[in-house]
Every structure is written in structure tokens, then in C-alpha cells.
Amino acid sequence: MQHKRAVSAVIFDMDGVLIDSSEAHFESWRRLASDLGGDMTRRQFRRTFGRQNRDIIPLLFGEGLGRRKIEDLGETKERYYRELIRNGVPIVPGAAELVQSCHAAGLPCAVGSSGHPENIAIALRALGVDHIMREVVSGHDVTVGKPDPRVFLLAAERLRVAPKNCVVIEDAPAGIEAALAAQMAAVAITTEHPREKLTRAHLVVDGMSELSPELLARIWLS
Fold first, then answer.
1. Domain for residue 222, yes or no?
2. What residues are paired with 168 via a beta bridge?
3. What's the pTM value of the predicted model, to 2 decimals?
4. How many CB atoms lie within 10 A of CB 118?
5. What pLDDT digit, counting tens, does each position of 89-124 carry?
6. Alpha-carbon dihedral 17, 127, 99, 215, rounded to 10 degrees
7. Taking CA atoms, which of 64, 69, 92, 200 is between 20 and 30 Å from 184?
8. How far are the Cα atoms of 44, 47, 61, 99, 145 from residue 56, in angstroms, in the given order?
9. Is 222 a residue whose pLDDT tops 50?
10. Residues 57 and 132 in one domain
């Protein structure tokens, strides 16, 4: 007999879930590559999007880079990104409303993202949910990126909710795998990837407006 476990907290990825930031991230990576005398293709970007800078930079620019150089390049890339979104954060339609409705329904919310903490703070302020997002776990809080589950497990720990009672909203296959590895329910949104790439999720939707606290609370993880 299968035992069903109710969802009692929601963990949101940032890029592709709360904000549609892919173009700004792509352009910031292109600028960094240009600084180094190279280029970044769309294919390279799609393959690496959602991973931590410390993992992406060696793949793009060579394995021989030292830790300090990788950190410096990552900070430059994120500075370019913030310049690009300065005049308008590209909010995913329905994202702010879902966070607000989850909060109102008593479902505590957290961010579990590979992103830079400053980028996350800018996005949450633009969404108008910085005062109700209970916890934020960024790429600076964990040493291993998705599909490792650490980012989501730390979010659950900070929320003081058992992982089995959390639902993760993600847009990338690596994030879905991280949620499943954490023994959490996984909801996928088709912002960046087609449905056939997201079939491991418990639920796949085309937009945040399709979700509600009531729907999320009915997702059972066997």
C-alpha cells in the first residue's frame, strides 16, 4: 500500500519560473565570452542554463582556470546581467500572484536557485514578494549545483518542513532531477524546455497561471 504525503511548502526556482531571464543571461554570457576573445552559442547556453557559474565557466573557457579566476569571471558575468535587467525585470506572468496566494493560503514559500543572491534580491523586489518569501537559498549557499538536491534540501531545512512535504516548481530537467533526488514533488513549467524534456515531473504546465495553492496542495508524492 502506498503512503501519500501532503504538500505543505512550496520551493520556487528563480530563472524561468519567477522571472523570464534567459535572454539577459544569454547576452551576459556572450559579453563575457567576447571579453575573452570567444563567443557563446545558443546550444552551449541551453546546455548550461540553470547550472552554477563555477560549473559553467570551466566548460566554456577551459578546465585549467583557478578558483579565484572562476569567481572573478562569474562576478563579471553577473554584473553584466544586472546591467541588462536594470530597466526592467522580466517577470513571468502569474508568478507574483502564485507566491502571494500560496502565502495567503498558509503555504510557506522559499526560493531554491543556482543564481547570485543579489540577482535574486532584485527579482523578488520587482515581483513585490520579498517581504513574504520565507527563505532564499542561492548558489552561494551550496557547493554543488543541480541536479544535486542540496539547494532544495537546505530550503526545506530552513523552512523547517520535511522534504517529503515540499513541492518544487522548476523549468529545467536538472532542477526536476534535483527535486526528485530530494524526495520532493516536482512541478515543471515549459518556459525554456518542451514538455518531452520535463516528463519526469509529477505535473507539467505551460504557465504559472495554471497553478494555485489548492492544486499544489493536492499533489501527492508516493
1. no
2. 11, 186
3. 0.88
4. 15
5. 999 999 999 999 999 999 999 999 988 999 999 999
6. -50
7. 92
8. 10, 9, 9, 30, 10
9. no
10. no
